[in-house]
Amino acid sequence: MENTNLPFFEQEAFEVWISEICEEIANVKDYAVTHFYEKYFPEHIMPPLWIASEYMTFGKIVTMYRKLEKDLQNLIAEVFNVPTRVFKSWILSS
Known about the structure:
The chain is mostly helical. It has two domains: 48 residues, no CATH class; 37 residues, no CATH class. It contains six helices and no strands. The longest helix is centred in the first third of the chain and has 16 residues. The relative contact order is 0.12. The model has no long low-confidence stretch (mean pLDDT 87).
């Protein structure tokens, strides 16, 4: 899978990250996951983020955040009404 959305992820590391998430999700028996694989696999190997994030480890979510462009990191911090450096300290100290 080509990395087109997380520019600070090297391709090889991105592929490992995605494959680990796919492995975690593959065994889930939730309706949304089952429906996704029945309807969209193999054209799409990864469910939409709103489904995948429910089964991603916190470490995977932190990795994704760290690889986002700085503008997106800033927008996420703004949602929590804190400076980006504070938000980063929250998630990286867990």
